[in-house]
Amino acid sequence: MTPARLTMGLLGGSAAGLVLTVATAKVGHRLERACAGEPWCERIEAAHPYAVLTGAADAVARSELVWLAGQSAPALATEAGSAWRPGQVAIDCELTRPSGTWRDLADSGVVVLRLAPLGAWEGTSREADALAGTTCLLAGPALYVPIAQALAAEIDAHTLAVAEDNWPLAAEAALLATTQVERIASAATRLFMAAGAPDGTALHRVLRRSIERVEGGVACGETHRVADGLTAALDRHRLAALDADDPDRPEDDLGDVAQLIASLADATTGSQER
User: Fold this and answer.
1) In whole angstroms, how far apart are CA 68 and each of 48, 104, 187, 257?
2) Which of 148-157, 187-196, 204-213 has the lowest mean pLDDT?
3) What's the pLDDT score for residue 251?
4) What was the pLDDT predicted at 59?
5) Shortest CA distance to 184 belongs to which of 235, 274, 256?
6) DSSP states of 163-225 as a string?
7) Residue pair 123/15 in contact by the 8 Å Cβ criterion
C-alpha cells in the first residue's frame, strides 16, 4: 500500500528547514505553501518550484504538516493566529531553539514536534541525499513521536529521542562535536604543519583514534559519571564566544579552545572524585 502523502507548509527559512523539506519532497510529500523572508524566498523557490510564497496564515491553513524553521518562525507562527487547527502537526527543525518556545502553540491544540538533523548544513538541495544515515534529534509528545520517526525513516535518517528538558544539553553536545572539534582539528593541524609536517594526514589518524577511544569510554559508561559536572561546566563556560559569527570572538582560537578543554577537564575530575 502506498504511504499517505502530506501537504506541507514552511514558516521561516534555515539550512536545516530547506534540507528537510527537499528530502521529504523527494519521497513524495509536497511543499505547497511557504512564508519566509530574504534570503530564503529565492532559495525556497529554487528548491521547490511548485511552492507558493504566501502569508503565514495561508501557509498554515493549507497544510497538514507545517515545518518551523529559522529565527523568524515563532513570529510567523503567532502571525498565523487562528489558521492553526487543533491536531495539526508542526515540526521545529532548529537544533538551538530554546525549550518552551512553542508552549502557547501546543496549548492551543497543535501537535508540536522537534526534529533537527545533527551536523553542519548549508541548505543546498544536494544535501538532501546526505541526510541518509544522519541522526536527527527528536522530541515531542510520546503519542505523536512516531510521526517524526516515520518521516525520518522515509528519508533514511536515524532518530535519537530525548526529553524536551534534556534538549539543550543534547544540542550543546551536538554543536560541540560539530563546530569545536573541527576548530580543534584545524588548529592542531596548523601547529603540526608549522613544526615541519607536509600535511595533517598523520595527525588526522591520531584524531580518529581519539574519537574511537571516546566511543569506547561512552560504551563503558564514562559519560554517565561526568554528566553532572559537565553540565555545570557548560553553564559556567558558555560556548557562544566560540561561535564563528560572534562579533566578540577572541582572535586566539587556540587559547579559547584551551579554556574550554580546561573547563571540561575540571568537570570530569570533579565528577570522578565524587
Assistant:
1) 16, 14, 35, 33
2) 204-213
3) 43
4) 96
5) 256
6) -GGGHHHHHHHHHIIIIIHHHHHHHHHHHHHHTT-SSSHHHHHHHHHHHHHHHHHHHTTHHHH
7) yes
Non-local (6+) Cβ contacts of 236 within 8 A are 263
Whether 203 and 192 have beta carbons less than 8 Å apart is answered as yes
> For residue 169, what pLDDT is reported?
86
Q: Mapping DSSP to helix (H, G, I), strand (E, B) and coil, where does residue 13 land?
A: coil
Name which of 140, 138, 133 is nearest 105 in CA terms. 140
Alpha-helical runs (H) found in the chain: 15-26, 40-47, 56-61, 73-80, 103-107, 145-154, 167-175, 181-194, 201-219, 222-236, 253-273
Whole-angstrom distance, CA of residue 118 vs CA of residue 121: 9
For residue 170, the model assigns a pLDDT of 87
- Examine the pLDDT at 204 and tell me if it is beyond 80: no
Provide the residue type at 142 as one letter.
A
Evaluate whether 73 touches 92 at the Cβ level (below 8 Å): yes
Contacts of 197 (CB under 8 A, 6+ apart): 203
pLDDT of residue 184: 77
3-state secondary structure of 87: coil
